[in-house]
Amino acid sequence: MTERIIGSDLRLIPYYRNDAAALPWYQDPDVCRQVDNRDEPYDIARLHRMYDYLCAHGACFYIEYRGALVGDVSLRDDGEIAIVVCKQYQNLHIGRRCVQEMLKLARERGMARVTANIYRFNTQSRRMFESVGFAETGPEWYKYALGPDPEAETAT
Questions:
Q1: What does the buried/exposed string (b/e) look like for 94-124 if buried means 16 or more CB atoms within 10 Å of the residue's CB?
Q2: pTM of the predicted protein model
Q3: Which strands sit side by side in the sheet containing 10-14, from one edge to the other?
């Protein structure tokens, strides 16, 4: 996996252990609620389990914005995208640009669709994913079709 340059101010860096940067994002109760619908912050063991899982089941990147690590984004082998941007860097269109880059990666990998699981109360993430072109397909699930969807064809 290689670095992905999104722009002069934004790039995705393949995951490596960096607890000093990542743990604070997952100790923010608001971020934990947005991502996992939980009020308890992550500890090191939970953080490692999450990243180990994401890396074993897809591509996982840190988000670097203007030289600072500000979050992470992953594309699982099953097509699910997950993204976290720390609170102080939200609402700068960083997430939108990263999701668009993950859609490019999904196309490169020949995926027919990409999904995102977004809690109903997380209106900020829902709006961001919808602005990129995702459509709600069920309670808390969104989909972006990259090509003919085999599931849609077998459902008829």
A1: bbbbbbebbbebbeeeebbbbbbebeeebee
A2: 0.90
A3: 4-7, 10-14, 58-65, 68-76, 81-85
Q: What are phi and psi of 29, to 5 degrees?
A: -60, -35
User: Do the beta carbons of residue 114 and residue 81 sit within 8 Å?
Assistant: yes
Instruction: Say what angle helices 123-132 and 94-108 make with each other, to 10 degrees.
Output: 50
Q: What is the pLDDT along the chain (156 residues), one digit of tens a residue?
A: 799 999 999 999 999 999 999 999 999 888 888 888 888 899 999 999 999 999 999 999 999 999 999 999 999 999 999 999 998 999 999 999 999 999 999 999 999 999 999 999 999 999 999 999 999 999 999 999 997 655 554 444
At 11, the amino acid letter reads: R
Distances (CA, A) of 38 to 25, 42, 86, 142: 14, 10, 16, 20
**Residue 142: Cβ-neighbour burial (10 angstroms; 0-12, 13-18, 19+):** buried
User: Smallest Cα–Cα separation from 65: which of 142, 13, 115, 16?
Assistant: 13
